[in-house]
Design brief:
single chain; 83% helix; rod-shaped; mainly alpha
Length: 90
């Protein structure tokens, strides 16, 4: 009887280790496939949707600031060209 309990305990422990290893492998495959770090949002509860929304907002703001930087460099070059044309004209 003791050997059955021991064998059952060993098998259940091995099954747990296999399942947790499979979960870790899935997370690593996700990270490799997407280039993004895997995060389980279920631990955040009600705040998980807010976290996702805030991340999207941060990405949108970064894109907006990049657009401003590009526009600023373009207008700076136009300004330099116009100043040079004024110097040539006078």
């Amino acid at each position: 009887m003791v050997s059955r309990v021991s064998a059952t305990g060993t098998l259940s422990q091995n099954l747990f280790l296999i399942n947790s290893g499979q979960s870790k492998l899935n997370q690593l495959n996700y990270s490799l496939g997407t280039g993004n770090k895997f995060e389980e949002l279920k631990f955040y509860g009600k705040d998980s949707t807010r976290i996702v929304d805030l991340r999207k907002d941060i990405e949108a703001r970064k894109a907006y600031t990049n657009s401003i930087d590009i526009t600023e460099s373009t207008t700076d070059s136009y300004d330099a060209i116009l100043e040079r044309l004024v110097q040539v004209a006078t």
